Amino acid sequence: MSLERTFAIIKPDAVSRGIQGEILARIQKAGFTIVAIKSMRLTKEEAGGFYAVHKARPFFGELTDFMSSGKIIAMVLEADAAILKWRDTMGATDPKKAAPGTIRHDLGTSIGNNVTHGSDAPETAAFEIGYFFAGLELI
């Protein structure tokens, strides 16, 4: 295994329901180090820049509306094989298909309201971390 960093978001649906503490506790219990963390609210344009890879998809407008609808918590997580580990900890995108005990299975309510986001590859993690955090925030 190799120590790596990944990017994670606690989405607006989780923050509005007040379950961010539960998600943070699960992150720590899973063995991640939280390298950087911030609470913020994205504009629709900022959400669009973050999800630019999905711009041609029919759900893009709905996604950017949702991600700019309330506060999020953006984080950089570190662990051995952090990208895969975080994806396993979150569970499948659809909470109904996620394994029991995963964050999305236990706390998500739908594919759209699945409480968390995580990078899917090293290149994605690098872009996403850089989109939200400056170098000095990552020491």
Structure write-up:
The relative contact order is 0.25. The protein is of the alpha+beta class. The model has no long low-confidence stretch (mean pLDDT 97). The protein has 7 helices and 4 strands, in the order E-H-H-E-H-H-E-H-H-E-H. The protein has a 4-stranded antiparallel sheet, with helices on both faces. The protein has helices at 12-17, 20-29, 44-50, 60-67, 82-90, 103-107, 122-132; strands at 3-10, 33-41, 71-80, 116-118. The longest helix is centred in the last third of the chain and has 11 residues, at 122-132. The chain has one domain (3-138): Alpha-Beta Plaits.
Keywords for this structure?
139 residues; alpha+beta; Alpha-Beta Plaits; 4-stranded antiparallel β-sheet; 7 helices; 40% helix; 22% strand; globular
CATH top level assignment: Alpha Beta
Low-confidence regions: none
Shape: globular
CATH fourth-tier homologous superfamily:
Nucleoside diphosphate kinase-like domain
Number of strands: 4
Structural class: alpha+beta
Q: Quick recap of the structure?
A:
The chain has 139 residues and is an alpha+beta fold. 40% of the residues lie in helices and 22% in strands. The protein has one domain (3-138): Alpha-Beta Plaits (2-Layer Sandwich).
How is this fold's topology laid out?
Blueprint: E1 3-10, H1 12-17, H2 20-29, E2 33-41, H3 44-50, H4 60-67, E3 71-80, H5 82-90, H6 103-107, E4 116-118, H7 122-132
Antiparallel strand pairs: 1-3, 1-4, 2-3
Helix pairs in contact: 3-4
